[in-house]
Amino acid sequence: MSKKMTGKDGQSVTIPDGYTGREGEDGRVIAVPPGYSHAAGKDGRVVAVPPGFSYHAGKDGRVIAIPPGHTHHEGKNGRVVAIPPKYSHHEGRDGRVVAVPPKYSCHEGKDWHMVAVPPGYSYHEGRDGRMIAVPPKYSYHEGKDGRMVAIPPGHGHHEGKNGRMIDVPPGHTYHEGKDGCLVAIPPGYSYHEGKDGRVVAIPPGHAHREGKDGRVVAIPPGGSFEEGSDGRVVAIPDGYSPDEGSDGRVIAVPPGDSTEEGSDGRVVAIPPGNTGCEGKDGRMVAIPLGQVGVEDERGRLVLP
Predict the structure, then answer these.
(1) Per the domain annotation, does 221 fall within a domain?
(2) Do residues 23 and 10 make contact, with C-beta atoms less than 8 angstroms apart?
(3) Which residue among 2, 30, 40, 272 is the one 20 to 30 A from 230 at the CA level?
(4) Are 4 and 16 in contact (CB under 8 A)?
(5) Could you report the per-residue pLDDT of 171-202, keeping only the tens digit for each?
(6) Distance CA 292, CA 15 (A)
(7) Mean pLDDT of the chain
(8) What pTM was estimated for this model as a whole?
(9) For the chain, what is the domain count?
(10) Residue 108 domain-assigned (yes or no)
């Protein structure tokens, strides 16, 4: 029988039968699968370590599990990254280490984002500072917004009044909404523009509904729709169920999933084998049992 275990942070975590609950000094509880060990970092977090894995802590106090055969490297930001066999590693100006596959090169844009470039690809940077990898025989074009886009052979490209370039595949048309954004419309699709000025492509056989917020949504055959108190319409596929958070947003919940609401009022679907955990930003996130999320600079929980 599973049980609930509440940590000092006030969050309750489901501990399945056979799992062990462990609480870190930060007050968070994780479910440790059978046969796993656990390790705690100086940041107070507990991490589940699979059998045969090692673990290592960085200067930032975080512990990560290192798979067999992997090495690890620490960036100037104090964070440790596991490096698979035959991979190299590169460190960006922001101090982050990135694992780079064999024969790939690594390049950094003015935005400090590192991009791994496969063999035979070229790389190009837009005025916005972002680097992109461009496959062989592709062209590349930059919009007035400074963003670079890779265009496959035989495809067209067009720019909207908002300055953004889009890829238009063969046989597609394109339409621009009052918001200045172009949208590629596949063959057989219709399109509708909402009061918000956005164009939406509607697949064949789909209905469409517009919410009080002015957004148009495609409704799949056999599905339904639900409008939240925030005025947004959400498509509910056949077999799914709607749930609304106290923030007024409705979500479509897949069969077998449960839901949990964060202190921000937003409801999140929690698949089987996951538990709901909340970050400092108040947002609930589905985290696989045996793993622990880490908070990014915005206070949002993400998987390391």
Answers:
(1) yes
(2) no
(3) 272
(4) no
(5) 999 999 999 999 999 999 999 999 999 999 99
(6) 13
(7) 92
(8) 0.78
(9) 2
(10) no
Say if residue 239 is in the same domain as residue 203: yes
- Whole-angstrom CA distances from 111 to 79, 99, 149, 278, 284 are 20, 19, 16, 29, 29
Q: Show the tokens assigned to 145.
A: 């917004």
Q: What is the pLDDT of residues 269-301, one digit of tens each?
A: 999 988 888 877 888 899 888 776 666 767 777
- Whether the CB-CB separation of 302 and 296 falls below 8 Å is answered with yes
Give the residue numbers spanning the domain of 231.
171-255
Q: What would the DSSP string read from start to end of 72-121?
A: EEE-TTS-EEEE-TT-EEEE-TTS-EEEE-TT-EEEE-TT--EEEE-TT-
Q: Within a domain: residue 280? A: yes
**Residue 68 carries which side chain, given as an amino acid letter?**
P
Contacts of 279 (CB under 8 A, 6+ apart): 285, 293, 295, 299, 300, 301
* 198 located within any domain: yes
In Å, how far are 48, 152, 167, 184 from 155, measured between CA atoms? 47, 6, 7, 11
Query: What span, in angstroms and rounded, lies between the C-alpha atoms of 169 and 192?
Result: 20
- pLDDT tens digits along 62-80: 899 999 999 999 999 999 9
SS3 of 145, please? coil
